[in-house]
Fold:
Amino acid sequence: MIVAERKPFDEIKDMVSSYKKVLTVGCGTCVAVCLAGGSKEVETLNAELNLAFGKDGVEFGAETLERQCDMEFLDELESKAGEYDAFLSMACGAGIQFLAQRFPDKPVLPAVNTSFIGVNLDVGWYEEKCRACGNCVLDMTGGICPVTMCAKGLFNGPCGGTNQGSCEIDPDQPCAWFQIYERLAAQGRLDQIIKLSPPNDWSNQKPRKVIQPGYEARVKALG
Amino acid sequence: MIAEKSSKTIDVQINKDVLVVGAGKAGLTAAAQIAAQGYKAVVIGNKTACACGAGCSKEMQDAGLVEIQDGTSLVDIAGVAGDFRVTLGKGEETCEVTFGAVVVAPQYTGVPLNSAYGLALNDKVISQTQLEALLADDAGKEKLVNGSGSTVAFLSGFGQEGDPTATGRVLASALEIQKLENCRSYIYAGNVKVGAKGMERLFTQGRNEGVVCFKPKTMPTIEQDKENVKIVITDPVVRADVELEPDYVVVEEGVVVGPDNLGIAQTLGIDADVDGFLPSNNVHRFPVKSNREGIYVAQNDVDAANVALQVKALIGDGVRTLTEDIAVVDDTKCVICLTCYRCCPHGAIFWQDGAAVISPAACQGCGICASECPMDAIQLGEFTDADLKSGVKEAVASAADATPSIVAFCCKNSALEAGEAAAQFGHEMPAGFRMVKVPCAGKVDVDFIMNALVEGADGVMVAACHEGNCKAERGNIYAGWRVEEIRQRLENMGLNKDRVVFTTIASNMAREFACKVNEFAEKL
Structure:
């Protein structure tokens, strides 16, 4: 899931202070699951803002959509949009941008910082697992991502900085390639580590698009 | 446990069989007592006691009321009280069986505390268990008597805080040795606990037979060489040292919880106390009840009888009337983030068909889940968010003329009663003090507190049960965390964080509660 953190209150307060009426828009998917932008956080943020601005200050509305990364759900704001001067989105960066794209005349402000793609270790505790590099090598690396877990993001490791299982940058940071070696050894698959991965092509980066197999024709028809 | 003014109830059929995990004396006794109530008891674990001796008569076993599956272990459990779907395993094989209730009978092991006395174990320095093994048969007794009789010294209550079980074992063994030909027993006891049935009689019997007891204030001086052990105490009456070189020294044993029991507790989702014993202590529950409805713990015969009564109260004639809306998930809002599942102290939440489900058979209505839910998808029948919010609004409005106005979220198990008692006793309270009743401090949402401030309250107090006293195990802890988070937020906003406080109180502490409220008002 995508993990986000709420922005510091002062930053949010500054962003909204020049508007009269703002709609705080939660997202009921990833950011709800990671306890950053669901309806509870919308309520709490609005209460904080009301407390800060007082009853005669900026006015805040609340709405939580199923997902802000789907146009159909964003359409639900159509009828309300006119009442507000700005949207304060609690979705991830993708949702915020899609909301801004759906309502191009409306200032859309981010209430959260999108952190990473990660997993849930316990209530409120998340860890990054994937950098979305677009070239998954987890088959060769024993299910441990070298791009995320290695400080250098090496596709062929370890480097000379590996130190008794730790990374040279921090003794508490495990060396990803040491862990990869250990896991492959335990699985009897050490031959995998010998394979050389060609360098990932990071040049000329532009927003990536994914069309799931079988949907190409549909997307093409949409133009 | 069940909402007070419930309206929606349903009758559910529940399974009448009971699983007993642990085939020691306590487990088998529990099985016999449960069978005596007319329910079938299946006992699993390694059998370490005589079934008939524990009351599981041949008739009960023949009739299938008690079924002992020696060597079978608990693999997994799903479901809730009345419908526990348990996976049992033996060797490679597993099977799933449904039970209405589960009883855990932990078998703790002993570890000799010889090092606490500076002693090394050898032929002469033995543990209480080793001595009991010798006393169990004639060959062992003969060895103890050793032709001309021997002297046996017991060391107890210096290596650890004494307890009635340990003292009882010492007294019984000492008496038995004293009765052997030409044998003498000496007991060196530190912290003696005799608060159990028959202990005084056992002690008196021993004294009458000639068992010598010393209760020195400090640990005796003990010297051990290759051959002998010398024990010296100072007798305060004769004001002289009393020396003894016994043939045998018996050291007390500490109880080890052991990974088995903790593993079983983890599998069942029940809490242990700080020392690892089962179940966790909770003054709001009967001692044999765990934090999960329908899962009980029997440590001994007395527990076994109480467990049987609890089982009867739960299962009855196989139909249970449940309140449907103690806590309900709105499946259109639920995003199955699993927060509720992870936070529930009663194992009442699972997920099904794309949404979290709260079982009315296991839910105890604390509301921790509802306050943690990021989508406000959970509502308690008796304490809906809408009701609580309007309660806060009314409280603030009614106190608007007074300064300071204080909204106190009061746990109905403690602070609410303390507050009501304070009013009845006539303790002086601030004019603007208003209480909002919550089922547990765990049901105080962050936004309730923030909204109380927005509505205009000068101060907000969250009053929970004392640490370790929460009926829902952890509701007070969650409340404390949330208040701390809000205080931090207020500080970040440049507001006075002391406008929001967390406090703990017991229901009988009316005066203290009034003092706390007055102190808070003063600060505001």
